[in-house]
Amino acid sequence: MRHALLLLLLLAAPLVAALGPRARRRDFRALSDAQMAAVATLPPAEWDAVDSGHLAHLLVPRVSDTAASTQVQAYLSSVFTKLGWHEDKDRFKQQTPLGEVEFTNLIYTFDVDAPRKLVLSAHFDSKWFAQGGFIGATDSSAPCATLIDVAEALTPLLKARKERIAAGTPLLSATHDEEDAAETTLQIIFFDGEEAFHEWTDTDSVYGSRHLAEKWDAEYLPPTHDFVRRRLAPRPTVLDTVDVLVLLDLLGAPRPSITSYYRETDWMFLQLAAADDKLRAAGLVEKGLKEQWFSKYFGFAGGGIDDDHRPFLHKGVPILHLITSPFPNVWHRMADNKDALDLGVLRRWNRIMRVWTAGYLGLAADDGAAGAGAGAGAGATADPTPAPRNASPRTTTDELVRP
Ligand SMILES: [Zn+2]
């Protein structure tokens, strides 16, 4: 009996190790109505035009390895440096159908020492066309701008929590261990080279994300890292520190239709849909109050739309892919410029992403004054077996094939 148990434990050990941090459960603390309203209306103010503020800097052609791309990188860098985030540039050269191109992924992390990360991402390059001039407002200027809005809104909350923990008053609620929540930080990645130069293939596409996933998969964590101390083998890499990679693409046009593609993250998708429902019910979004953006039908069992998440998905990182399908009708056309964007849609996306991200990280706007426990929302535990959903037919598409 003892031996059988021991054998069972020995057999199970590699499995437990293999599941590792990438498959860890976590609590999602949906914000209370008051917290939601506070987070949704935090500064900065809502955008006043589809081409002002950050978008004015992003609505330009920004093909990889061009002066315009360098300018956009400098702008993103200035925004995040001002916010006090850690900057990491992943710069490399790669052969493309157009010859050798230099790419630069930009990685911003609020707390670079945190052992775990919620990663929000979008690609900042625009597609190359021989005649030039393609902007790609939905592809992906608008998603990049939304990521900036989330960072700007939540930085003060992240800072306040960090200061509280540093001051030795981390735990402010019986139900909420702030120090535990603060173990996960927010990281924002702007991928370069998502677009194919000629025809979309496995090698002519997602240059930046392929490089970064490879790099992080080969970068082992130092012996002092929390994950190394928690388990013996296989030795964790930087990829293991990613709770989930959320990828935004082709957003900003009216009436998006977003589907959940991965069982592993379906519970997060449902929390996004719930955040949107609550924002609409509270009248905190102005656009398409009756429009359901998040599909009730579960998408593809193992397919989805090819994009920057692919290299991470193939290495076992949980993925949440927020892309509209069918694609916007301006997709890869010159018409994908500011006129394709809808201000109310952009504002709604900003609020959804603020509220969901705050919930995921256990942040609330009233934390500072009243303590984390004040008005704490009902915690929903990540359920590995999501509620039954109707599966739609299995299909695989890529960014070049209109689904
Ligand atoms: Zn594209």
UniProtKB/TrEMBL annotation:
Signal peptide stretch: 1-18
InterPro entries the record matches: M28_QC, Peptidase_M28, QC/QCL
Family annotation (CDD domains): M28_QC_like
Keywords: Acyltransferase, Hydrolase, Metal-binding, Protease, Signal, Transferase, Zinc
Enzyme Commission number: 3.4.-.-
GO molecular function, one term: zinc ion binding
Annotated Pfam families: Peptidase_M28
Top-level taxon of origin: Eukaryota
Region (Disordered): 371-403
Gene3D superfamilies to which the protein is assigned, alphabetical: Zn peptidases (3.40.630.10)
Every Peptidase M28 domain range: 105-355
GO biological process annotation, one example: proteolysis
Matches recorded under PANTHER family: GLUTAMINYL-PEPTIDE CYCLOTRANSFERASE, GLUTAMINYL-PEPTIDE CYCLOTRANSFERASE-RELATED
Family: Belongs to the peptidase M28 family.
Name by which UniProt lists this protein: Peptide hydrolase
Annotated source species: Vanrija humicola (Yeast)
